[in-house]
Every structure is written in structure tokens, then in C-alpha cells.
Specification:
Blueprint (H helix, E strand, L loop, with lengths): L1 H12 L2 H8 L4 H17 L5 H32 L1 H4 L11 H16 L12 H18 L5 H4 L2 H24 L3 H12 L5 H8 L4 H30 L2
């Protein structure tokens, strides 16, 4: 369902000028952004060395390993300290999930690294390596899917249609009210729905220099989505018990 919405967005990129006119948006900010991003990219881009690859992979695996370690001990601490988390029948019991805290710690590690000299590795292709791991993650998740199960519960498809319709409707309404360019509507949508797997692709369709903007919005979507997804999970759990 989400991919259908992405296809509509990609079709709209070819008519972005007409859509911007309908939204009454001034896309001059996008042109300025293109120039700034192009200049910045040319400034930091360098030939990637073996040393760069080693440092980037070490940072990535160390952050993931540390996240696993902290998640294991922190989730155990919460379960041993709070009855409401230890009791699996309570809604807050999910706070004892090791995977939840692993994601939280890994996201936090990425944010903290962006304030250090590690951010300079963007010029050495850090985002491209990160994108590769994102595609590996998506492929791994896809291999565990059983598409035949959807036929057993077609209501899930209806939920997906309702979900993406509300998402698209709210975005279009807000974009119309604040007169936002179609670029931010399209890339912002995919940053929330598809994350780093699709937001850069949509951004690149507008202009190759805007790929990094799609990555940044996707990362922001992950930061906000970590908490948002947890809240949505609680709401869906409540709805399932109604």
C-alpha cells in the first residue's frame, strides 16, 4: 500500500511545477538549497581510502555492539525494578523489550556521532555505505515475509489503505495551508513511510544533489519515529483488544 503512494509521488515529480502552482508554493528555496548542497558536497567530497572504510565500519559495528550490550542490561534493569513492565499483561511491558532499547541506543549513538568529527566521513561516502546496510536490512525483513498470510487477514490491507490515506491527506492539507513546495511534501512523506530506503530515491528524482537532504529527513524520521512507532504500537494493541 505504501509503495502505491510512493509511485503516485514519483509520478507527481514530473509535474512538480504544476503542483507547486496549485499549492501556491514558492520553490525558490529549493533552487537555493540545490546550490548550497552542491557547493557543500563538492567541498567535502574526497577519494575514499582503506583507512576511511575501516574507521566507518568500526564506528558502525562498535555502536551496534554497544547498543546490544546496553539494551540487554537496561531492559533487564527495568523488568527487575518495575512490576508494571515485568507483567506481560500490562501495556507498558513492551518497555522491557531488548530490541526496543537497542534501536533507541543505536539511534542516539548516530545522533551523537553527528556532532563529532565523524560527520566528516560523509565526504568519504558514509551515507552510501549506510544505504547499503539499509537495503540489506530491508531484504532480510522481506525474506521472512509470507505474502500468503495477507489472504487470511484481508483486514490488514484495509488498515494499510486507511493509514496511508490519512497520511497523504494530512500532508496535502498541511502543504496547502503553509504553501510548502511539493519537494518537502514528497520527500517528507517518504522519510516517514519508507525511511532511508526510499526518501533519498525520491529526493534524487528532483535533483541528484538533493539526495543528502532525503537522507537527513529520513534520519529525522527515524529519530521521531522511534517514539512515534512505540506509541502507535500501544494504540494498536488497545484497538486489537476492543
Amino acid at each position: 500500500v505504501a509503495n502505491i503512494w510512493m509511485a503516485i509521488i514519483l509520478l507527481g515529480i514530473g509535474k512538480s511545477d504544476r503542483i507547486d502552482h496549485w499549492l501556491k508554493a514558492d520553490n525558490s528555496s529549493i533552487e537555493t538549497l540545490k546550490a548550497k548542497v552542491t557547493a557543500h558536497t563538492e567541498k567535502i567530497t574526497r577519494v575514499t581510502t582503506l583507512h576511511d572504510y575501516i574507521i566507518m565500519l568500526c564506528l558502525a559495528f562498535f555502536a551496534v555492539g554497544l547498543s546490544h550490550y546496553l539494551a540487554y542490561h537496561f531492559s533487564g534493569f527495568l523488568e527487575n525494578t518495575f512490576e508494571v513492565i515485568r507483567n506481560k499483561e500490562k501495556a507498558l511491558s513492551s518497555l522491557g523489550s531488548k530490541f526496543l532499547w537497542m534501536v533507541v541506543f543505536a539511534t542516539t549513538a548516530g545522533i551523537l556521532l553527528s556532532f563529532t568529527k565523524a560527520k566528516n566521513y560523509e565526504g568519504a561516502g558514509a551515507s552510501k555505505i549506510g544505504g547499503l546496510f539499509i537495503y540489506i536490512l530491508v531484504a532480510t525483513i522481506g525474506m521472512k515475509m509470507d505474502l500468503g498470510r495477507f489472504l487470511e487477514n484481508p483486514g490488514l490491507i484495509a488498515v494499510g489503505i486507511i493509514w496511508i490515506s490519512i497520511h497523504a491527506g494530512l500532508l496535502i492539507l498541511v502543504a496547502k495551508i503553509i504553501k510548502a513546495p511539493f519537494f518537502f511534501l514528497a520527500v517528507g512523506s517518504q522519510a516517514n513511510v519508507g525511511g532511508a530506503a526510499s526518501a533519498p530515491i525520491v529526493a534524487a528524482e528532483f535533483h541528484p544533489s538533493l539526495t543528502s537532504v532525503g537522507i537527513l529527513l529520513a534520519v529525522l524520521g527515524y529519530v521521531v519515529g522511534t517514539a512515534g512507532a512505540y506509541i502507535c504500537g500501544l494504540l494498536m494493541e488497545v484497538a486489537a483488544n476492543v
